[in-house]
Amino acid sequence: MFPFGNTCHTGKEDLRETNYKPNFTTDNMKKIALIYGSTTDNTKWIAERIAAKLSAYEVDLIDVARLKAEQLAQYYNLILGTSTWGAGDIQNDWESFLPKLKDVNLSGKVVALFGLGDSYSYADTFVDGMAQLYEAVKDRGCTVVGAVSPDGYVHASSNAVVDGNFVGLPLDQDNESDRTDARIDGWLSEIESLFIG
Ligand SMILES: Cc1cc2nc3c(=O)[nH]c(=O)nc-3n(C[C@H](O)[C@H](O)[C@H](O)COP(=O)(O)O)c2cc1C
Description:
It is built from four helices and nine strands. By secondary structure, the protein is an alpha/beta fold. β7 and β8 (165-166) form a beta hairpin.
């Protein structure tokens, strides 16, 4: 790896006479792809909030509707977010992308999941879409981080609860938006150090 960012410098240039500015941050920053699928923009808005809170990192915010599978090769760290529609269905754009995700080599990557849902009106299928993301990435050689205790959530049942914990961060903007920021902050404090630099 070159010490001064992506450009190869021979050491023979007179740096005082160029516009060259050494970039010490880019190479050292953890690079994260934050990918969301959103129908009425709730998940999009949350993804933007998470990205803002990760300002110390290089975060690429990507709508899964515009994602090409080959883009994922450049990231060690993935944060994937979806809402749930129908009765426990993953968001439409994610549904279209999941077959393509099968061809992505996830080996060695760190993956964190978040899910938007409505724990009151859809108490039996709360954030089930996140469970489908989990099914798509588990046992693929990546490390799934950021499991969350169901304590404090009022849902009746969820496929996204595995071994007693949610497989990622559940958020309910329909009923509990006042708790969202604290939930995101707590989750990020658990997972930030686990991302690969
Ligand atoms: C018709 C309909 C079906 C829904 N089904 C579920 C569901 O099964 N489980 C759930 O947790 N939330 C469900 N929701 C709630 C959405 O997931 C929630 O409003 C979410 O914030 C939408 O995010 P988006 O705008 O990013 O797509 C449903 C909402 C609607 C309107």
